[in-house]
Amino acid sequence: MWNQRYSSDEFVYGTEPNSFLAQHAELLTGPVLSLAEGEGRNAVCLASLGLDVLGVDGSAVGLAKAQQLAASRNLTIRTEVVDLATYIPPEDTFGSVVSIWAHLPSMVRQRLHGLVERSLKPGGMILLEAYSKAQLTRNTGGPKDVDMLVSAIEIEQAFPNYDIILSQEIERDVSEGKFHTGLASVVQFIARKPA
Predict the structure, then answer these.
(1) Which one, of 108, 99, 57, 56, lies nearest residue 191 by Cα?
(2) pLDDT, tens digit, 9 for 90 and up, residues 101-134
(3) What phi, psi does 43 have (nearest 5°)?
(4) Tally of domains within the chain
(5) What angle (nearest 5°) sits at the alpha carbon of residue 161, between those of residues 165 and 98?
């Protein structure tokens, strides 16, 4: 599905970063692991701030466009094609992990979040934005499977020992290409791993 979605010449979610990520990027330290990176807009934004970024995604087509976007801006990002259902990030490696619209079945998500916790260095940051369960009734983006949508409580429970900086469910306008446009119900979460 994702290789097909990314196969057009256009960047289907645009080339500008997710606005929640851009607003809080100064909190992040490298190296950064960006989950479900897609066509590279978020990784390229972080690289423009001088951060070392590894973008992982299941779509080789998307990540090829990510490298193209980085090159067009004279930036360097690292990319790796992975299946997030089986991906094991290296332990104690990342200063930050970014998860923007990384919608996965709940069993896969729970497994991955446990591995993300191990992959972060002490003091490392997790920054996440995802569609909430209330998004199911909207046609402005996100999966149409409630199991792939999240609540703030679920995300907080995934990182129980973290110092929470922000955890909220809100409605906001999203304008990210043709598939994420309009009023949306989202979860926003930022937390720090204890040092």
Answers:
(1) 99
(2) 999 999 999 999 999 999 999 999 999 999 999 9
(3) -65, -40
(4) 1
(5) 55
